[in-house]
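Incident review: delayed structure delivery

Summary: a single-chain prediction request sat in the queue longer than the usual turnaround. Root cause was a stuck worker, restarted by the on-call engineer. No data loss occurred. The affected request and its eventual output are reproduced below so the record is complete for anyone auditing the incident later.

Affected input:
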Amino acid sequence: MPLFKDEMTPMERAIALSKGEDVDRIQCNPNLSNGIARVLGCKISEFNYSARTLADAVIATHRRFGGDSAKVFTDLFIIAEAMGAKMKYPEDETVDLLEPAIKDISEIYKLEPIDPYKDGRLPIHIEAMKYVQNEIGDEVPCTALVVGPFTSAFFLIGVETMTKMMIKDPESVHKLCEISLENCIRFADATIKQGIGISIADPMSSCTVVSPKHFRKFSKPYLKRFIDFIKSKGSGTSIHICGKTDNIWEDIVDIGVGALSIDNIASLKNCTETVGDRIKIMGNVDPSSIMYAGTKEDVRKATLKCVKDGYKSPKGYGIMSGCGLPVETPIENIDAMLDTAREIGWPITDEKLEELMSFSRYE
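Output delivered after worker restart:
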């Protein structure tokens, strides 16, 4: 169980920070992903057909840990699935792609606009959003994760085919991204109507996957239009891109997103120094070797280091894991991350962080 208690709700903290007022602690979002099933005590597969179960897991996770965001999310494929992609549905693991929606670009005519209220598992997510917002929306900022247009386009035709097309058939890549963008907007619009915010995941935009040149040619234009739409509806957004992203940090700033979550293989210090004056930074405690496989003290020390590297970022900083946590991440390690945020308190100084790093709380 937690060692420390919060003095503010996550919503109170978010509002105070937006006004430049003092808070009880720095924001912290462990990013449990499908680990929320372990908190509720259900199987991951139950999220695929029960909006109530998905919402209950999100709500239970918020009430158990008190993190600074409550996110409705199951997997990266719900938009592609609604457009015809086929999925693997393990009983107690995350849904994965079985077959893309089309096998060849000649079948692009098969890709039709989605109805978020009818197609695939999208209605389940929308219903879950309603429950979450109604029941805890006054306590914590609630969001839904929407996969970006570029990444969703990969799942429509397959990663290998899409990668080849970027070189051999760029015009068709743009066509796929255009169709993908339309459907991302449709789902985002339905999401915003539930009164919750949007966080974007765009793993295929990573410099680990595509070159910065291809990102700027094929991803950035559609991502910007997607973010422009979200902002036109009065909603803010954050983005997480896995892997290496340092060569596109300036591009992320250009597209107007409100916050950037970086992977643990990226340098948090460099990120805050490079773009922290223009965008809020979040990250980047290692989700595997630290959060999943480390001790509570490993988590504490890694969290303290991240805060030291990021807290002076002019546009703000929030503690976060470098990516979604493995499902079986120990509960006590998640507690340790949030307890470290509470232990640091407010205001934050280098001297306070050095003092906290000089001793071990759990060993």
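Verification: The chain has two domains: 28-257, 267-357.
Action items: add queue-age alerting; document worker restart procedure.
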